[in-house]
């Protein structure tokens, strides 16, 4: 029994230590579909204004996701009111239909680059918002309910020099 406990403790310590560059990592769950009007917001507090970071949007999808690409609108709202908005496109599947994310079975996770070497120059609370911007070819109306997206995450990692 004591050896088993010690082994578990060592494994937990190892896995926690492997993610020392993580500053923020949070997910929002969706009911296997994402409504076009649903904006997922992540609130960032106490971000070091002198440190540089890499930003990622994490997407967990099931095989119910019918597209090879994913279009997103991401927005960062600064504490003093400035807003930076980006329209993003990510490849989710190879041309042969094989999912590019990691994972087993019907669920895949993709860690998608959002911005690199970012500084948060203002002290205070930042908000990062993400919503989908998917449309079918030839149709200006967006897809009302995007099936197959189960979670959206936002991750910040320190850039270690």
From TrEMBL:
Domain of life (superkingdom): Bacteria
NCBIfam families associated with the record: GldH_lipo
Protein known as: Protein involved in gliding motility GldH
